[in-house]
């Protein structure tokens, strides 16, 4: 799935809807099924949708090399899904009865006998097993050996102007393995790369905001600019601080003390420790304790050019600084992926689960659903389920391109937040007023109209759509139990047919770059120097760590007892005052909202002038923030009382 820099949504998708895979959360089914008549176990979803007869360019050469990952289902995949549901459901007698990582592995992990049997099968087919861990085996060999092992031919197919290898049919494994194989990845070679979720500058191209600014929403309005929506629009804020975000989302006295938040991204910024420390000092934030921020990094990195590795530095910086701003006493552990590709990001997630590095995991990356294949989806779902039984919750950005039509031509949701086992975090535009008082939020969706040459009007007002919070109805997953009775049928059935499906997001927080967060980062200047500077940033890459920080506060309020997979609890509180019910028109129907934004033409100084534009808020492509659940903000954003509303189970430990 993840190969284009997702922040800018580079990856255009020509693929049709993916085949439906029943979610274990909804139906208790697996992605693999047995075909006893053939003596083989079907690994469904391993033939990609784009591998059509029309695109077939013939057989791949037998001598071509193949590298695969064979994911292990464990000894009780159905039991894992069932217990993950039970332990996360406040209405279940098993709620909060979490297992340790060792107990999870013992109860549901692959056995030595299963690993040995899968290894023997791969070797007997002519593949060489090059590595193994508790989750998967890696194997290499030629096409002929792979075809023998997986019972399908490999052909070359044209896709989006490129040629990729893919199986002509779904892969299979011997039925004699008794379901030990969950899925296989690597048979198709189309890029599946993650991107980060906002327009972050690479370190070699400094970015700074021009100003003037508002220090809080509405604090600075310039009368010389034309009216918008019947009045003068204020300048965009300089960037909210931790105090403003904590006040908006009802932090109260809670600071995240005793709670650890993990952050996963690709690569790692070499400047993160010094940047985070300076940012906290310069903005009046809390100083980091020794050891409060730590990193778990791979031995080496790969695909640095394909993934624009330096572009991920700003992502880590945003995530770390946002979590610390909202939950200043929480420990933060950054777990870096060796690349932006699925296999390496899955490895990072598995490190969190296998070593129980944290109870809360913030992930500001993803891709569009059409780029996700069910084989990779099964691997993500498994790690999310394993995390759930340990009391670990995963929070994913919902995306920054609204319904994705403008960027891909296809209305679709984002992934991995589409998984029923993950919490998808949508985005808002946030107005925090004087004295840190919460004023309102609207769904994040922006239209841009530049100032006319004569300065008397906004050209093409309100202007074209630029970006907005991702959301929508999955074509891959059925509706999970916790969305029943909350998500309107108009959304759950939006893809047609009679089967209700998973809808994103689940919850939301500030994401609009025009009402965004101030970050501090070391960047490269045109003269080649490295300098620390601050700038305002947004995207659902901001919303995810903000919600992760709020969840750390809530876990502290539960006396440290893990929230775990949060969606059942999030939906159980739907419709109560602990949420801000966010709509497109918080000031009333017909009351438009906008800010004036001033940008450097060259993105870093005034030497080439500035560009003034009006940014209309609350216009997210075809998505709408409405009363009740919606596909921009989910159930809403945390309000006063949210942090203390999650009482722990009486029997929790």
UniProtKB/TrEMBL annotation:
<keyword id="KW-0106">Calcium</keyword>
<feature type="compositionally biased region" description="Polar residues">
    <location>
        <begin position="43"/>
        <end position="52"/>
    </location>
</feature>
<keyword id="KW-0732">Signal</keyword>
<keyword id="KW-0378">Hydrolase</keyword>
<comment type="similarity">
    <text>Belongs to the peptidase S8 family.</text>
</comment>
<keyword id="KW-0645">Protease</keyword>
<dbReference type="Pfam" id="PF09286">
    <property type="entry name" value="Pro-kuma_activ"/>
</dbReference>
<dbReference type="GO" id="GO:0006508">
    <property type="term" value="P:proteolysis"/>
</dbReference>
<protein>
    <submittedName>
        <fullName>Subtilase family protein</fullName>
    </submittedName>
</protein>
<keyword id="KW-0865">Zymogen</keyword>
<dbReference type="InterPro" id="IPR015366">
    <property type="entry name" value="S53_propep"/>
</dbReference>
<dbReference type="Pfam" id="PF00082">
    <property type="entry name" value="Peptidase_S8"/>
</dbReference>
<feature type="domain" description="Peptidase S53">
    <location>
        <begin position="239"/>
        <end position="650"/>
    </location>
</feature>
<keyword id="KW-0720">Serine protease</keyword>
<dbReference type="InterPro" id="IPR023828">
    <property type="entry name" value="Peptidase_S8_Ser-AS"/>
</dbReference>
<dbReference type="InterPro" id="IPR030400">
    <property type="entry name" value="Sedolisin_dom"/>
</dbReference>
<keyword id="KW-0479">Metal-binding</keyword>
<feature type="region of interest" description="Disordered">
    <location>
        <begin position="37"/>
        <end position="56"/>
    </location>
</feature>
<dbReference type="InterPro" id="IPR036852">
    <property type="entry name" value="Peptidase_S8/S53_dom_sf"/>
</dbReference>
<dbReference type="GO" id="GO:0008240">
    <property type="term" value="F:tripeptidyl-peptidase activity"/>
</dbReference>
<feature type="signal peptide">
    <location>
        <begin position="1"/>
        <end position="34"/>
    </location>
</feature>
<dbReference type="GO" id="GO:0004252">
    <property type="term" value="F:serine-type endopeptidase activity"/>
</dbReference>
<dbReference type="InterPro" id="IPR000209">
    <property type="entry name" value="Peptidase_S8/S53_dom"/>
</dbReference>
<dbReference type="InterPro" id="IPR050819">
    <property type="entry name" value="Tripeptidyl-peptidase_I"/>
</dbReference>
<dbReference type="GO" id="GO:0046872">
    <property type="term" value="F:metal ion binding"/>
</dbReference>
